[in-house]
Amino acid sequence: MRINKIVGIGANVFDTLYSVDNYPTEDTKMRANAVKSSGGGPCATGLVAASKLGETCAFIGNMTDDNGGKFLKADFEKYAVDTNYITILPGLDSFCSCIWLAKESASRTCVFFRGNVPPTKVDETKGEAIKNADILMVDGNDMGAAIEGATIAKENGTKVLYDAGGLYEGVERLLPFSDILIPSEEFALGHTKAKTAEEAAEILFKKYSPEVVVITQGKKGGIIFDGKTVTHYPSFWVDAVDSNGSGDVFHGAFAFATVRKMDYLAASVFSSAVSAIKCTKVGAREGVPTYNETIEFLKERGYNV
């Protein structure tokens, strides 16, 4: 088996995307402009993003063999994400979601079902994959395995990147393992009760002692706090058709950039660009650009990372 620089434990979701002109009114019928199946989930999509950019990646977790599970495994293989650390448990229901992409507002609305695939056990083989990696990505899903994996990572010099997008039960147990803590602004404010992202970043850094806190703020870009200085990084305006998964892609791009030895400001700018380009196409994974496409995009806007 190959050694993967980035491994992940977390959500892997079978998405069905409906492109509509505007969000539907309750108890009505409306015609969709298009329907598409796509892989989703913070950790899994982040791994696909990092793989498409050019790094070796693997997913660690349980899946099943229903139509969603078959699609998701094939999707990993399509994007060269290593599936050797996946355990297939037959006869169960996959984590899935239905997503409306509203053209007028460029927004997305998601209804999800978690399925009934049981939690992952991190056995010796999966533990070795974590030990050999540069980065372990976690997203707060499959919490027990994430904590177990993060413990192994911390003991063996593997950095833990925590995509903190949701206020899941038990996050306070996972947060102390973070080396690279990347929460959404919603998570940061909700968890800390701070009034500003800057204040939240300082609280998170002081409480959990990561190397860096990067708070994503959507269209506003975001902020970086390294324990001394708050630095803002930009967003990039594009003709967006699908914002679903853009945050997941940001985290995967950040993991890639960190493995490639970019400093945290350069990694944030690079990841913001990758996320913006992704929004120009439908599908959380299909829209992820290559490394060279991203560098060209940044050069056109005056950035050299």
Description:
- This protein has 305 residues and is α/β, with parallel strands linked by helices.
- It has helices at 42-53, 67-78, 124-132, 143-155, 171-174, 185-192, 197-208, 246-259, 264-278, 291-300; strands spanning 6-9, 13-20, 34-40, 57-59, 61-63, 81-82, 86-88, 96-102, 107-113, 135-138, 159-164, 180-183, 212-216, 222-225, 230-233.
- The strands form three sheets. It has a nine-stranded mixed sheet, with helices on both faces. A four-stranded mixed sheet has the order 3-2-8-9. Strands 5-7 form a two-stranded parallel sheet.
- Helix 8 runs antiparallel to helix 9.
- It is globular and about 55 Å long.
How helical, in percent, are the residues?
A: 25-40%
* Structural class designation: alpha/beta
Name of the CATH first level = Alpha Beta
Total individual domains = 1
End-to-end distance: 32 Å
Instruction: Report the C-alpha radius of gyration, rounded.
Output: 18 Å
Largest sheet: 9 strands, mixed
CATH topology: UDP-N-acetylmuramoyl-L-alanine:D-glutamate ligase
Multimer state: single chain
- Label the CATH architecture: 3-Layer(aba) Sandwich
What global shape is seen? globular
Strand arrangement within the widest β-sheet reads 6-4-1-10-11-12-13-14-15
Average pLDDT, rounded to a whole number, is 94
Output the helix-strand order. Answer: EEEHEEHEEEEHEHEHEHHEEEHHH
Strand content is 15-25%
For CATH, the homologous superfamily is named as Ribokinase
